[in-house]
Design a protein that fits this description.
The chain has 204 residues and is mainly α. The protein folds into two domains: 15-70, Orthogonal Bundle (Arc Repressor Mutant, subunit A); 74-194, Tetracycline Repressor, domain 2. The chain contains ten helices and no strands. Helix 9 packs antiparallel against helix 10 (181-194). The longest helix is centred in the first third of the chain and has 24 residues, at 15-38.
Length: 204
């Protein structure tokens, strides 16, 4: 046991936990395969349950809503988001670290990974999935604000840190649909890092 000694590695999951994790993964894999093959709206919950060889009751124990079937790594995604700030290279600013994370995990498709590319296209072409993804990301705002504050030596409730966290998580939505989403995202993070500068030209 390691309940009283945080220096020891966590105990491996028991048989029951492994079985639950395997069931959850089987459901998520079946759902994504069907969604990619036929489209999100054309696939029903019962079809997914049948493909994963579980009951619909079991499916809903793991995934309370249909949209959640597409996003099975919420906790891992938050951990990567926070690590982007905590583990950034020396000299790299927090906005720059968050920009690189957003470019890598929220806009870019993995090179040569056709399935990942298809996944991104599925999400971007399905409004309920886009909205669910954004809602899911915004749930991480408080945790991200605390890490930004800690790394900056500021109070945990600093409003500037909260604003940076919120706008960081909103930036990919603002970039979506632009002619060059990557450059749009980079410009958004330039604004977060350097602030607004009035553009030259006549005022109207």
């Amino acid at each position: 046991m390691n309940d009283t000694d945080p220096t020891l590695p966590p105990a491996p999951p028991g048989r029951r936990e492994r079985k639950k994790a395997a069931t959850r993964q089987a459901i998520a894999d079946a759902a994504l395969s069907l969604f990619l093959e036929r489209g999100y709206d054309a696939v029903g919950i019962r079809e997914i349950a049948d493909a994963a060889d579980v009951s619909t009751t079991t499916l809903f124990k793991h995934f309370p809503v249909k949209e959640a079937l597409v996003f099975d790594e919420d906790a891992d995604q938050e951990a990567r988001l926070l690590a982007a700030v905590r583990d950034r290279p020396p000299g790299q600013s927090i906005p720059a670290a968050l920009r690189e994370h957003a470019l890598r995990h929220r806009l870019a498709a993995a090179d040569g990974d056709d399935r990942f590319t298809d996944f991104v296209e599925l999400v971007n072409s399905t409004p309920p999935l886009r909205d669910y993804l954004q809602t899911m990301w915004l749930r991480h705002s408080s945790a991200l604000a605390r890490v930004i504050a800690d790394e900056s030596g500021l109070p945990a409730d600093d409003p500037g840190c909260a604003a940076l966290a919120h706008f960081t998580l909103e930036a990919p939505r603002a970039a979506h649909g632009q002619g060059d989403a990557r450059q749009a995202l980079i410009r958004a993070f330039d604004l977060l890092e350097h602030g607004w500068l009035d553009q030259p030209g006549p005022r109207r």
